[in-house]
What we know:
By secondary structure, the protein is α/β, with parallel strands linked by helices. It contains 12 helices and 12 strands. The strands form 4 sheets. A 5-stranded mixed beta sheet has the order 4-3-5-12-6, sandwiched between helices. Strands 10-7-11 form a 3-stranded antiparallel beta sheet. It has a two-stranded antiparallel ribbon with strand order 1-2. It is elongated. The relative contact order is 0.13.
Amino acid sequence: MRIEQLEYIVSVAETRSFSKTAQDLHISQSAISQSVLKLEEELGVKIFERSSLGVKPTAEGKVLITDASNVLIKLKKLQDNASAFRKSGQNELKIGLVTGLHLPFLPKILAQIKKEFPYQFITFQELGSIEIVKRIINKELDIGIVVVYENTHSYQDVVTFHNFHEVKFFVFVEKHSPLAAFSSITPQDLLGQTFVMYNGEYMNWFFDKFNEEFGPFEILFTSSNNETIRETVRKGIAITIETETELLNNPYIKNGELIAIPLLENIQDKSYLGLAKIQNKSNAIETTTFIKALESRLQEMFNKKPIQL
């Protein structure tokens, strides 16, 4: 039994004609007739009644034709799935995400991508911005959500950066701190304060420049654990400097236990939360859909007015 024999009997049942099926499938009528006859002989069942008026399925033939149709549907599904798996393997979207950046809307974006492109695979790697850029250059990542600043700018000859939002800094203090009454804070206001800082590539760069320009400042410790930093500040042991994304997502800011005050610093080089991709590389439709959704959600997030200010 061959697959084309199943296709023939389904088509003949629809057209009620060997000649019409032959025309539709671009095969000789005799080839189809012989193929159907061999199938009947193999199965030991007469599938069609033949007469001068044409052909029609026998009672047994109707059942077998329905079975054949179901087999062909399953086969088509198998072929479609295999094709989709091949395509998704070729178009796996590999995204770098700067360590410590919390984007609460990412699961919704991924659900949207999965709905539109069911067989698309997406993987995230949390790394420093420089490492993300290097992996994009080495084709280990397709795109990266990074901080675009002094150190990443050195790769702009081979990597394209798209700025989403300027990075703004805030001083986080516990609600009973004398600093909590300030509407804004200058670096001079922070002299004599003890800091706990996030230990990441970008924040280390920022605080080194900040300390060199306006310090020295005392650091109690650095940590890559956001919750440890939050608890230290909440208990009044130290203060910290954080970006606007932390302001928008910190639960202690939202419930009023911590206060965020805008930091008035004049470090010359502005920084941005942005996207990095290799130059002159066209995006797949899945990548373009992800980028558009990301930009839209970021605009929504940053347009929300912080409850303290």
